[in-house]
Amino acid sequence: MSNRKTVYATLRRKVLTMELPPGASLSENELAAALGVSRTPVRESLILLAEEGLVQVFPKVGSFVSRVDPVRVADAQFLREAVELTALDDLPTPLDPALLAALEDNLRRQDTPGITNEEFFALDEDFHHGLLRLSGHGAAWATVSAAKGHLDRARRLGLQEASPPTANASQHRDILTAVRSGDLPAARSAMRRHLRAVFADVERIQRRSPELFASNEGPTPVRRSVVVWD
Predict the structure, then answer these.
(1) Phi first, then psi: what are they for 55, rounded to 5°?
(2) Sign of the dihedral defined by the CA atoms of residues 7, 10, 13, 17, in that order
(3) Does the pLDDT value for residue 156 go beyond 60?
(4) Rounded CA gap, 96 and 210, in Å?
(5) DSSP secondary-structure letter at 68?
(6) If you write DSSP's letter for every residue of 172-208 in order, what string do you get?
(7) Is pLDDT larger for residue 2 or for residue 166?
């Protein structure tokens, strides 16, 4: 991979996992030194992340990790729901036994005692990607993933409050049970309920920690020794 692709992937992962939290200041010099690269791939990566809405650049002030935007969360969730519910309509008969076995194994690992949020998040992603593969639309996952940066950060905030993530694992089980039995209405209902749970998480967390979220009257950050949102 080129320096830019590597730096972009690294910074995007740090933003999505909250290692670089909403509002964090992004110094090209510091990031370049930490990653062992020149400033050019860092600058180019920040431009790409800004195009995704994950970074904000304020002239004469600097670059910052954007706060989670509820509007972008809703847009990404709309796209994801449209893709995943439509894919359920294309489930073949019979279902691929190897793909079903992989999904069952995924569910077992979701119930691992002491599983971390990031481990669960990775299994969650694999589970939904696996359902798309089961319907023959696995390639669509790349498009969904690229569009859901703000959604993924909201989901991670929700997971931080739901440890262990038993409710999410149970919802996955409900979806797969309905898929196995061929009950498409139940599968669609379970999937819709599961995907829309993020809205309740956003509403609850936004009340408690409004500084993590964007608003229409969002202020301009001031670069000091720490980031301050006036």
Answers:
(1) -135, 145
(2) negative
(3) yes
(4) 45
(5) B
(6) HHHHHHHHHHT-HHHHHHHHHHHHHHHHHHHHHHHHH
(7) 166
Does the pLDDT at position 223 exceed 90?
Answer: no
Instruction: In whole angstroms, give the CA distance from residue 85 to residue 161.
Output: 27
Residue 179 and residue 113 in contact, taking contact as beta carbons nearer than 8 Å = no
Span 78-107, pLDDT tens digits? 999 999 999 999 999 999 999 999 999 999
HSE-up of 195 (CA within 13 Å, CB side)? 24
Report residue 230 as tokens. Answer: 């006036």
Per-residue tokens: 75: 């847009």
**How far is it, in rounded angstroms, from Cα 168 to Cα 155?**
11
pLDDT band at 219 (very low <50, low <70, confident <90, very high): low
- Tell me which residue has tokens 């599983």: 115
Contacts of 195 (CB under 8 A, 6+ apart): 77, 80, 81, 84
